[in-house]
Amino acid sequence: MQKTILIGGEAGLGTAVTSHFVGKIFTSLGYYVFNYRDYPSLIRGGHNFNILKISDKPVYSHEYKYDFILALDQKTVDIHKKDLKQSGLVFKAKETEPKILANNILIGLLFKYFGVDLNILFAAAEKTFGKNADLVKKSIQEGYQLDSEKEKLKKLKPKCFISGTEAIGIGAIAAGMDIYLAYPMTPASPVLHFLAKRQLENNILVFQPENEIAVINAALGASFAGAKAMVGTSGGGFALMTEGLSLAAMTELPLVIYLGQRPAPATGLATHTGQGDLKFALNAGHGEFLRVVLSPGDAQEAVIRTQEAFYLSNKYRIPVILLSDKHLAESNYTFDEIAKSSLPIDRFIVENPQEDYRPYALTPNGISPRAVPGQGNFVVRANSYEHNEYGYTIEDSAGAVKMQDKRFKKLPYLKKEIDKLNPISVYGKGSNLLISHGSTKGAILDALPQIKNFRFMQISYLKPFPAEKVAKEIKKSMPTGRQAKKVVLVENSVTGSLADVIKEETGITIKNKILKYDGRPFTPDDIINQL
């Protein structure tokens, strides 16, 4: 069973809430659902739509051919009817007061078509809408009575329905995060909202300072005091944070940075998706310093990679950038269950520091023992100037070399640790190879069974780059002395930045690229057609 449903209407009519509610009901019935959200940068008006793909087998992407259109206005019919399948149906809402009730009438109509028991819909309404459930249930029942059963859904084992945003938040809480700071900027803002609602139950602090410069500096202050700190931003907000990123590196204060990408330059397409910030994330900040950049490909991976980000940041006292985008953040995925990382939840703060404590002590692996103010009769310093082991400012050449070497001594140990965290994943079999990172994973996985003789390599760690593993996988598709039979990069960008990174790190040139940079994510058909 596979159905695709489009739900559309102008901003303010509740397309997002309606699609999420419909998706939750299908997953409660045991079906896999992928929910894609498309909307302009408007609070009212314009045209919003969500696409739900429902199946009895796992699905990770959407398509633009519909079995059902649930239209909250005539504009939705006018725009999307051309993409209705031959046997497809349009359910259009009549004028109701309040208008939002029209959504629920369509929900009742849709699930009557599939023969879903009305009590299941009522239970879902009570769980979702609480004190407003009675009005919702009444309008659902009204729609339920307008049609008859056409297809019967089997009841399967309930599934988890989770967005990339929720996954980042769950991962951060599971990692023991203490404080989340952010200034609102799409598509990173939903993490701020998700965590803000859960402060008390999880004993965390969520705060919105006055701008992104304040955000990162306040987070570093919290980190200095021993807190596990995370910040969130996008585009120009991250640009404002880059001086603070260098400060985190020099002071060796742990910090996790959630970067939700959207198309640029400048404001760009503020509510759409892209992967054009890859090189920016890899190189942002002044000077040379260690960082980790990792890029989850779906919501399940986002939970685990967020936990890894906190672990590596706190253990190695470095900034870690968690690279996402609008498509991953605002899409909903379905999994049988949500797994979490087994990594220890550790602050890596020494319990009984020596009286001669040195915050930047020279050690064989470059990681200095970390203490926080108030632990003993000594001073803990964090100095943005080059400094000695005690944190006092220095300018001598020998001391500067020692400290730069100390910070970079961490690199081989960091690489070895990352090597254990599955920095790449390979799916499918074939002599030809697709390569990507981030949210393109979903469309590629759904396309793979329809592509002959291709496998897929997903690169999750982009810095430090798993060069040996990546090169080995690419060379499997390269006959001796010749370029790859067919190695193809898939990326939501204008130039295909990951190919440049692979060239720099491995010396291998990837000439074949499937690129999309209209602000919309890939569908399986995009990939199949271009191949």
What's the structural blueprint in terms of helices and strands?
Blueprint lengths: L1 E10 L3 H14 L3 E7 L6 E11 L10 E6 L2 H7 L3 E9 L8 H13 L4 H12 L3 H12 L15 E4 H11 L4 E4 L6 H8 L2 H4 L2 E3 L4 H13 L4 E5 L1 H17 L3 E7 L16 H6 L8 E3 L4 H18 L2 E7 H5 L1 E4 L61 H12 L1 H10 L4 E4 L4 E5 L4 H7 L6 E6 L1 E3 L3 H9 L11 E5 L5 H10 L5 E4 L8 H7 L1
Parallel strand pairs: 1-4, 4-5, 7-8, 7-9, 9-10, 10-12, 11-12, 15-16, 15-18, 18-19
Antiparallel strand pairs: 1-3, 2-3, 6-13, 11-17, 14-16
Helix pairs in contact: 3-5, 4-5, 6-7, 6-12, 9-10, 16-19
Summarize the structure.
By secondary structure, the chain is an alpha/beta fold. Helix content is 37%, strand content 20%.
Task: Provide a descriptive summary of the structure in words.
The longest helix has 18 residues, at 299-316. The chain folds into four domains: 2-158, Pyruvate-ferredoxin Oxidoreductase, domain 3, CATH 3.40.920.10; 162-335, Thiamin diphosphate (ThDP)-binding fold, Pyr/PP domains (Rossmann fold, 3-Layer(aba) Sandwich), CATH 3.40.50.970; 349-421, no CATH class; 422-530, Rossmann fold, CATH 3.40.50. The protein is built from 19 helices and 19 strands. It has helices spanning 15-28, 74-80, 101-113, 118-129, 133-144, 164-174, 189-196, 199-202, 212-224, 235-251, 278-283, 299-316, 326-330, 397-408, 410-419, 441-447, 467-475, 497-506, 524-530, and strands at 2-11, 32-38, 45-55, 66-71, 84-92, 160-163, 179-182, 205-207, 229-233, 255-261, 292-294, 319-325, 332-335, 424-427, 432-436, 454-459, 461-463, 487-491, 512-515. Strands 8-7-9-10-12-11-17 form a seven-stranded mixed β-sheet, with helices on both faces. Strands 2-3-1-4-5 form a five-stranded mixed β-sheet, with helices on both faces. It has a five-stranded mixed β-sheet with strand order 14-16-15-18-19, with helices on both faces. The protein has 531 residues and is of the alpha/beta class. The chain is globular and about 80 Å long. The mean pLDDT is 95.
